[in-house]
Amino acid sequence: MPFLGGSALKEAYRRAQRGGYAYMANNIAEPNTLLGLLDAYTEAKSDLVVQISPGAAKYAGGGDKLAGLRALSGLISVLAVNRPIGVFINLDHFTTQELALMDVAIRERLVSSIMIDASAESFEANIRASAEVVRMAKGSGILVEAELGKIRGVEDEISSDEAFYTHPDEAVEFVRASGADLLAIAIGTEHGVSKGRKIELRVDLAKAIQAKLHEAGLDTPLVLHGSSGLLPGQVRDAIRYGVCKLNKDTHYQYVYSRAACEFYLKNSRAIMPPDGVEDDIVDLFSKSDWSPDKKLFDPRVAGKLVQEKIKWIAGELLAQGSSGGHANPSGESDSSTAKR
Ligand SMILES: [Zn+2]
């Protein structure tokens, strides 16, 4: 299937709420991570949520965020076509600085959902900014995720030294006033490398937020950011209280670099010139008897290993969310399915 639009994603989250499972939302910035994810999710028969942050768009576009966004969205879309799973694209941590970019993403149907992160602003300004993106997305079917509370740590271009927990009563007012489809809550997770055993995860807060929303007639799916490093029991607790989406970025970054690091350490002698050989990269060692081994320095060799390791960790993580076996690739009935 080509990647699917917001209506199909809304339905996927609704099924997850009913079925008691959640989607890991997985950040990518280049093809190796994406290919590993597609393999893992296809094998597990799970729908796949792929995320693009402003920093990833900037990276992929060589500094041009819009070019990078179009390139990554196109790459995901093309590679998703032959996969028997639903593939969705979410914009992760877009801020009020990127309203024009979000507008293009909506008009060109580059994504299934958008996260507007105005959580650094005041409560009122956060509502205004989130409502503005909801208004922009109106009629497109594209879902809007907004964040209330602050998540400590550094993620991409967003960083916060402080954590502010989401208040359950404010959550209801915020969702009502902003019209957001999904609500990212702060209950103690941290962006970046966090130690699950050291996190005091306030599942009681998630439970209270879910209950208050439900009382108000809102069954808004909850989102947990900074989920890398959460223990499986913590993930299960979060899902029990309405979390349908858990963001994962840092974990893949580590596994990516770990796989590459192991490969290059092991094969350094086939790639680095030994002592006594002139380090003549410009002439590619043509004056020396020694040559580097093309079978090992071709970046696709390490890249393939990276893909396999990403596939492995993605399989482990999606199993924690229990989204396997629930794939629903039938996007035809979805009126907002991206037209490509
Ligand atoms: Zn985040």
CATH topology: TIM Barrel
Helix percentage range: 40-55%
Global Rg = 21 Å
**Outline:** elongated
CATH superfamily: Aldolase class I
Name the CATH class: Alpha Beta
Hetero ligands? zinc ion
Uncertain stretches of 5 or more adjacent residues: 332-340
Going across the major beta sheet, what is the strand order? 1-2-3-4-5-8-9-10
Overall SS class: alpha/beta
Tell me what the structure shows.
The chain has one domain: Aldolase class I (TIM Barrel), CATH 3.20.20. By secondary structure, the protein is of the alpha/beta class. Residues 332-340 have low confidence and may be disordered. The chain has helices at residues 6-19, 31-43, 54-60, 65-80, 99-107, 123-137, 168-178, 203-215, 232-240, 250-266, 268-271, 294-297, 299-321; strands at residues 23-27, 48-52, 87-94, 113-116, 143-148, 153-155, 158-160, 182-185, 222-224, 243-248. The protein is built from 13 helices and 10 strands. The termini are close together. The chain is elongated and about 75 Å long. Helix 2 (31-43) crosses helix 13 (299-321) and helix 3 packs across helix 4 (65-80). The chain has an 8-stranded parallel barrel, surrounded by 9 helices. Strands 6-7 form a two-stranded antiparallel sheet. Residues 93, 155, 191, 225-226, 247 line the site of zinc ion (ZN). Zinc ion (ZN) binds at residues 93, 155, 191, 225-226, 247.
